């Protein structure tokens, strides 16, 4: 009788445990794995896309201003400061010549309009441009320039050329000299030209004694063919010498820095600034045009 009683007691305890376990499972059902996915989606949403980072860092706009071939009111080309570029504050007319693309690159369109940086010109006269001019230290002052005699100075422009009508030539980068106290002349010392798909280095060399640095003493060097592919052209001034390099993956080009000319060793004393963009070598009509897309610009200066 005692055994039977104990058995009944054990059965009651067992049924109680089963009942409590069932209730507990009902109150706290196991969460399916699929319901945890929204947490992962939230993490993806707060991670900045790579494209946004590239758009911010591809050009340090404070170190540049833009020239477009539109009459500023006195017959000269219009200058656009970095604030208007960053804030997308260009007029409808200005935006025909310069605009930002969805991938963060910038299109620089130009043609002969008659409005140049040095004043109005007739057909067959001067040339027009949509081009960036460097402020070395970002001081927004055309006296903010650098000397070849000290430090290292580097420009790397990544771009591709959509089309160049007319004679097929546009200048995509420059080292430009600056007239200063006791030093006359504003030489376009180095011009990197896209010439029907060939990257050509056009550089001034030492003039005759007593004469200025001009194109009368320039030399031209075909450096590599890029056609309409994306490329990076690099200019470096180091110890007074100019070196150039060119990378174009589509053309399997990877030309390392090559010494081109010793400027300081040949008496060059001008202060300088970099330029990059679309300086169209055509002025025979008002119709032919050129278009360059600028993907990235990097400059580096050491005193």
Q: Can you walk through the features of this model?
A:
The N and C termini lie far apart (106 Å). The longest helix has 26 residues, at 2-27. The chain has helices spanning 2-27, 37-46, 50-57, 82-86; strands spanning 64-71, 77-80, 98-100, 106-111, 115-116, 119-120, 129-134, 146-147, 152-164, 169-178, 190-195, 198-204, 218-225, 231-238, 241-248, 253-262, 271-280, 289-302. The strands form three sheets. Strands 1, 2, 7, 8, 10, 11, 12, 13 and 17 form a nine-stranded antiparallel sheet that branches. Strands 3-4-18-9-14-15-16 form a seven-stranded antiparallel sheet, with no helix packed on it. Strands 5-6 form a two-stranded antiparallel sheet. Strand 11 (190-195) and strand 12 (198-204) form a beta hairpin. By secondary structure, it is of the alpha+beta class.
Which helices and strands appear, and what pairs or packs with what?
Elements: H1 2-27, H2 37-46, H3 50-57, E1 64-71, E2 77-80, H4 82-86, E3 98-100, E4 106-111, E5 115-116, E6 119-120, E7 129-134, E8 146-147, E9 152-164, E10 169-178, E11 190-195, E12 198-204, E13 218-225, E14 231-238, E15 241-248, E16 253-262, E17 271-280, E18 289-302
Antiparallel strand pairs: 1-2, 1-7, 3-4, 4-18, 5-6, 7-17, 8-17, 9-14, 9-18, 10-11, 10-17, 11-12, 12-13, 14-15, 15-16
